[in-house]
Amino acid sequence: MQKEEEFKNTGIEIGLYTLGDRGSDPYTGKTISAQQRMKEIIEAAKLADEAGLDVFGVGEHHRLDYATSAVPVVLAAIAQITNRIKLTSATTVLSTIDPVRLFEDFATLDLLSDGRAEIIAGRGAFVESFPLFGYDTNDYDALFSENIELFLKLNENERITWDGHFRPSLRNAEIAPRPLQNELPIWVGVGGTPDSAARAGRLGVGMALAILGGDPLRFKPLVDLYHKAGIEAGHNLKDLKVGVTGHGYFSKTSQQAKDEFYPYYSNYWSYVNLQRGMTNRRMSRADFEQLTSQETALFVGSPQQIIEKILRQYELFGHQRFMAQIDIGGLPFRKVAQGIELLATEIAPIVRKETSK
User: Which intervals hold domain Luciferase-like (predicted)?
Assistant: First the structure.
C-alpha cells in the first residue's frame, strides 16, 4: 500500500467514470447481470483509489440495459471501501430530480466519504427519466435552468425561501444535512452546446466537456465562451474549472490497443445507437482507425500516445481534470483493471508532471 504522502499530486486531476452499461460481450454474446456489473464498478473504484487516481464518477440511466440508476447509493458503497478518491456523479440528470432531494443525498454522501462528494449535472442525452418521473420533455431546458439555480441556493443556505414553476415553494425550509465541505462542488456537463457553456460560466460552476471523438480543437470556442461568460458575470478565472471526459482504452502498443478494443467499441456504438432509435450499423474498422488517429479525441493507444493526446488538449483548454470511460462495450473486467493500472502508473505521473510546470 502506498503512503498517503505519495498521493499528493500536482498538475491536473486524472480519473475514471462509468455509466454502468450492460452490453453483451461481442465474443460470447453473454450479458453481465446488474449485480455483477455493480460489483465490478465498486471494485474498479477501489483499484483506482489504491492506485492514486484522483476522481471516480458514476453516471445515471434508468434503463434495464444499465446498472446505475441510484448513483448516490452506488457512490456511498464506494465511499466505504475507498480512502481518498473524489466521488462524483457523471452525470446527474438534473432536469428530472428534485434539487432538494439531490442536495440531501449528496450532502449525506459527503459526510460518509469525509468530504469527497461532487456532482456533474446535465440535461441528459437520454430522456427516459422524463416520463418515468412525470416530467414533460418540452420543459427539457426550463427544468434544468430552474433546478440548477435552486440547487446553488441550497448549496449556500441551510434555510431557504424560494418560489419556482415546477416544484412547490419553500418557506424558511431547513435543508439538512449540511455537507462536510463548505459547499458541494458542482460541474455542468456540456456536450457541444454554446448556450450550455455560457450558462456554466454565468453560474460560476465547473464545466465538464464530453469529447467523444473528432478534432478536440472544435471545443476550444466552448471553453473560451465559458471563461468569457464567467468573467463577465463577476467570477474569478481561477474558479472556472474545465474538465475533459472521453472514451479510452490503453495497452502496451498502439496496434495492440486498437486490435483489442475495436470489437468492443464497435459493439458499444451498435447498441447505443439502437437505444437512441438510430440505425444499428456496426462501425467499420476503417472508421475506427480514423477515430483513433493521433489528431482525434478518442483516447485509444499506447501510454505515450495517450499522454500526447491529453497534453495536446491541455494546450488547447488548460483544463483542471481529465476523466476516461474505459469499461464500455461489454469489455471484460480484467481488461478494465489493466487499463486502470496503465492510467495510474504510466500515464498519470507524466501528465501530472508536465501540467504542473
Answer: 13-316
